């Protein structure tokens, strides 16, 4: 049900975009109004989330990290897993963001015979790396449709991405990898009972949405085709705040479906698990140097606590304690 | 700590608005059709209808290449039954001899760089030629 429901939701979105921009002819709504609203929700929602997280108190360092902290010189210090300096933290962060280092250490536990066995498991890491990097490169490649003149790095990425020069329009590897990895991540969720048990619609829906976005993109690029020049004209008009749907040229419905799904993703983003894009930077276990034994961290909201320690207690109740035969420290 | 949050927020805003502040003024490409060969045509028609060419010329070229080089078919019959020689240089570029003002006009805009001209010879063009 969680899976079917999420899938149905994506299909409903698809149908809305299809009906709205096709038969109903509401192209200004789907080509201009909704994308603007979606970008607005994305930016404001993202900022709201960041500020909300930034407001939570983090008075102390949270050193739950997988490595030996800095100690005596003869104890091997794991510099990247348990950094004690800002530079070390940057190193850990870079590895985390670009290589997903903590996922790399993913383990799995299995009962083999009568023994519990722990082992390394890299499949999730491989799938996640393929998925994220492909998505990122696809996103950057899209800048050719948003920026005029097209920046050199986009050409460079395109030439790498289409390295094998298969067919025309040239096959971009990342598109294939993105869909493949997305499907793999879904099948993994579905197939492994433990993972399926903890998976929610909030896990399936974004995955299906992203797969649908990539699929409509691929269909548009390689199969049904659309007027790319008109598409770029529309997008540039959005980017320069002089929105206009090209009149002479016809942009196909598939493009509006693609755009609507992207808008849905953007609007959904700040309220979903996808916020790990911002959250990764604010993860206390990743972004704090473990310098607890070097620097004193004082709780900023400490106030003088009224204490009543044992000596005072005994002074107050000595007579009563003696009377009932309780031993006292001072006669 | 708060300082880093502000830096992060500024970085976020700069990055997400990147297409907005770098979009540039849109100058729509206008592929020119005024080559001598096209002016000689009675009916100003491409190999296939214009709408089709605009969207699918790369697929057509791909078919042409495979047809000529894999199947040895060097004649293409279009949707109207007219025959064309399957050739990039001798058919497409004979009519569209203004590559810079035609093909490149769109391609620069759309950010595609067909690698055909690594091998195929682009028509000779001088600046100022029609």
Describe the structure.
The complex is a heterodimer of chains A (331) and B (130). Chain A is mainly alpha-helical. Chain A has one domain (2-303): Transmembrane di-heme cytochromes, Chain C (Fumarate Reductase Cytochrome B subunit), CATH 1.20.950. Chain A is 59% helix and 4% strand. Chain A has 14 helices and two strands; from the N terminus they run ααααββαααααααααα. Chain A has helices spanning 2-21, 27-55, 86-99, 101-104, 123-141, 152-161, 173-191, 193-198, 201-224, 228-239, 253-268, 276-279, 284-287, 310-323; strands at 107-112, 115-120. Chain A has a two-stranded antiparallel sheet. In chain A, a hairpin with a 2-residue loop joins β1 (107-112) and β2 (115-120). In chain A, α1 crosses α9 and α7 packs antiparallel against α9. Chain A is elongated, with a radius of gyration of 28 Å. The relative contact order of chain A is 0.16. With 130 residues, chain B is mainly alpha-helical. Chain B has a domain at 33-112. A two-stranded antiparallel ribbon of chain B has the order 1-2. In chain B, a hairpin with a 5-residue loop joins β1 and β2. The longest helix of chain B has 22 residues, at 50-71. The radius of gyration of chain B is 21 Å and the shape is elongated. Chain B starts with a helix and ends in a 20-residue tail after the last helix. The mean pLDDT of chain B is 87. Chains A and B meet through α2, α6 and α10 of A and α1, α2, α4 and α6 of B.
Mean of the pLDDT scores of chain B? 87
Give the ordered list of helices and strands of chain A. HHHHEEHHHHHHHHHH
Number of helices of chain A: 14
End-to-end separation of chain A: 74 Å
Query: Could you name the ranges of chain B where pLDDT drops below 50 across 5 or more consecutive residues?
Result: none
Helix-residue proportion of chain A: 55-70%
Overall geometry of chain A comes to: elongated
Alpha-carbon distance between the two ends of chain B: 64 Å
Estimate what percentage of residues of chain B fall within beta strands.
under 5%
């Amino acid at each position: 049900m969680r899976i079917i429901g999420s899938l149905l939701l994506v299909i409903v979105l698809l149908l809305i975009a299809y009906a709205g921009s096709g038969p109903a002819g509401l192209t200004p709504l789907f080509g201009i109004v909704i994308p603007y609203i979606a970008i607005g929700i994305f930016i404001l929602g993202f900022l709201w989330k960041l500020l909300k997280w930034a407001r939570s108190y983090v008075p102390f360092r949270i050193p739950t990290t997988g490595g030996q902290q800095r100690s005596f010189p003869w104890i091997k210090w794991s510099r990247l897993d348990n950094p004690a300096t800002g530079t070390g933290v940057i190193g850990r962060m870079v590895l985390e963001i670009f290589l997903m280092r903590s996922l790399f250490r993913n383990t799995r536990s299995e009962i083999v015979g009568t023994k519990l066995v722990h082992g390394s498991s890299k499949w999730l890491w491989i799938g996640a790396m393929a998925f994220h990097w492909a998505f990122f490169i696809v996103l950057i490649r899209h800048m050719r449709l948003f920026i005029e003149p097209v920046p050199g790095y986009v050409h460079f990425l395109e030439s790498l991405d289409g390295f094998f020069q298969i067919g025309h329009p040239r096959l971009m590897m990342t598109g294939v990898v993105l869909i493949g990895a997305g499907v793999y991540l879904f099948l993994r969720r579905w197939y492994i009972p433990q993972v399926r048990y903890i998976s929610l619609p909030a896990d399936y829906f974004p995955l299906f949405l992203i797969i649908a976005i990539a699929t409509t993109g691929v269909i548009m690029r390689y199969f049904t085709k659309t007027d790319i020049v008109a598409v770029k004209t529309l997008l540039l008009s959005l980017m320069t705040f002089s929105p206009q749907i090209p009149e002479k040229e016809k942009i196909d419905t598939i493009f509006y479906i693609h755009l609507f799904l992207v808008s849905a993703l953007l609007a959904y983003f700040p309220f979903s698990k996808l916020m790990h894009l911002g959250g990764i930077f604010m993860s206390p276990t990743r972004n704090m140097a473990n310098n607890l034994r070097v620097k004193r961290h004082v709780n900023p909201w400490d106030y003088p606590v009224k204490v009543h320690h044992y000596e005072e207690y005994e002074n107050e109740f000595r007579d009563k304690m003696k009377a009932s035969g309780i031993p006292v420290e001072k006669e | 700590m708060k300082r880093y949050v502000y830096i992060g927020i500024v970085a976020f805003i700069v990055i997400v608005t990147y297409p907005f502040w770098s979009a540039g003024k849109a100058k729509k490409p206008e592929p020119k059709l005024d080559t001598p060969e096209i002016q000689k045509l009675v009916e100003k028609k491409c190999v296939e209808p214009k709408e089709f060419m605009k969207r699918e010329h790369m697929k057509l070229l791909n078919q042409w290449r495979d047809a000529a080089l894999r199947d040895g078919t060097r004649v293409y019959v279009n949707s109207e039954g007219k025959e064309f020689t399957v050739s990039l240089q001798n058919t497409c570029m004979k009519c569209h001899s203004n590559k810079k003002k035609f093909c490149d006009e769109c391609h620069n805009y759309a950010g595609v760089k067909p690698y055909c001209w690594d091998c195929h010879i682009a028509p000779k063009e001088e600046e100022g030629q029609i």
